[in-house]
Amino acid sequence: MPINFFKHLAVHNDDHILRIAPLEHLKEIVEGFYVFKAGYRVERELFFNDGYPVIALMQNRNENVSVSIDGHMKSVGNAWVCGGVLRNTYCESGLDFQDCFVIRFYAVTFFKLFGINEDYFHQKQVFDFSEIAGYGFEQFEEAYYHGSSLEERMKITVRFLSEKVNTYSYPKVLLDIQKYIDRRGNLTVRDVMDGYAVRLNYKWLERNFKKHLGISPQNYLLIRRFLNAYIDLDSLTSKELLEIAIDNGYYDDNHFIKDFRRFSGVPPKTYFSRSKGAKTDKENYAK
Fold first, then answer.
1. Which top-level group of life is the source organism from (predicted)?
2. 20-48 as b/e, with b when 16 or more CB fall inside 10 Å?
3. Distance CA 58, CA 78 (A)
4. Are 37 and 99 in contact, with CB atoms under 8 Å apart?
5. pTM surpassing 0.70?
6. How far apart are alpha carbons 187 and 221 in whole angstroms?
7. What would the pLDDT profile of 203-261 be if each residue is shown by its tens digit?
8. How many structural domains is the chain composed of?
């Protein structure tokens, strides 16, 4: 997803995002349905994922998204999936994401729902939804884009997902651990093991994160740390870069800059100076 989606998601009651709660029978599968109402065009938008796989559908059928992954261009169509750890990935389409419809899934159930392996996102992180949607996708897409209202499109989406729900087992405590990490923010694996209400075994945590979420606990904590620091930096507070880094669990500002390069391909100063409407205050944060 465009990283600004998560910036608005982090602010409760943000006017740029409308959240629709899932129906009871989908609550263990879908974290929420969202309409991204940011409505501003960015020529080159950084893509990111916060550990919750998403399926995004553009407002109009003819809005096809192209992404650059480490400099290699790829078209992912008007309905696409985003998950795993994204590095140096940008939307190059120059599209307005006004009213983009986003389905945010729990990873522990996402893989089972679409019948894919838990390491699927190791191979590709952004791709056309048709690659995994399975039976009924063409009818779903046709009906969705003929829907004339959000309510109608919601019903079509819920019906499509409901037809895929099967009975399967997974350690339900993983959902609670994931929510615990999201609430607490700056944590290490040791903090999770020591602070969570139930005693955890490291090998169990490592094995089940990889098996059911498709990502190691270390990588999950890493992407959450970067996202929190990015939002902090983007908020144009009076904090210095070093203070932002320390507040979000980095050793120092160089540690944060190194991570910023890992995810965006460039240091913060270059990234924000390229962003449309970037403020000069942000440039002073970076080296």
1. Bacteria
2. bebeeebeebbbbbbbbebeeebeebbbb
3. 5
4. yes
5. yes
6. 7
7. 888 888 888 888 898 999 999 999 999 988 888 667 788 999 998 889 899 999 999 99
8. 2
Looking at residue 218, which CATH number applies to its domain?
1.10.10.60
Tell me how far apart the alpha carbons of residues 145 and 248 are, in angstroms, rounded to a whole number: 41
Quick one: which of 124, 120, 101 has its CA closest to 110?
120
Residue that finishes a domain, picked among 162, 179, 210: 162
Compute φ and ψ for 256, nearest 5 degrees: -65, -45
Question: Are 238 and 102 part of one and the same domain?
Answer: no
- What domain range is 207 assigned to? 169-287
Q: What share of the chain is helix, strand, coil (3-state, %, to 5)?
A: 45, 15, 40
Give CA–CA dist 51/181, Å, rounded: 11
Residues 58, 16 share a domain = yes
Residue-wise pLDDT tens digits, 128-159: 999 999 888 999 999 999 998 999 999 999 99
From 162, 194, 221, give the residue that closes a domain: 162
Contact by Cβ (8 Å): 1, 57: no
208 CA to centre of own chain? 20
* Between 6 and 195, residue with greater pLDDT: 6
